Amino acid sequence: MYTRSTATWWEEVTPWVPSIALLPVCIYILVTRGKYLLIDHFNLLVHEGGHGIFMFFGQFLYIAGGTLMQIILPMLIVWYFFRNGYRFGVQLFLVWLGQNFINISVYAADAQERALPLLGGTAVIHDWHYMLGKLGLLQYDAIVGYVFVGMAGLTFIAALFMPLIMRN
Hints:
Helix content is about 70%, strand content about 0%. It is mostly helical and about 170 residues long. The chain has one domain (about 25-165). About 30% of the residues are buried.
């Protein structure tokens, strides 16, 4: 027997309001790839803190630690909100994760040229020049950068379609 849903149109639309609000943010981050945003000040702290946390695990992980922390910290927060059923928190921090992927893409794509200004100036190691050089992939820095752009895009899509995944 067919029963009609008692949900109003507003109750059907409400879960999508954060997605609608976050869509222009995601588009802006993708379109302006490499433009320094206010959140990047915090991302830089997270990145540099990652070096400190991973310094005990050898030279390669010490250098990779900044990038790893830019991925791990937002993912931990996403997991926390997902586990507790807070959809908007998941969406918001997936967008932050995607923004970090964009940030990482710019840094990785700069591995050969090393034109980005780094804390400490020219005396410090360019993380991605070192890592890709050690892996024999330095000539593929642009491709690695685009892989991170793709990961950002997929992360943004996951954030925007979270109402289909998490139904409250």
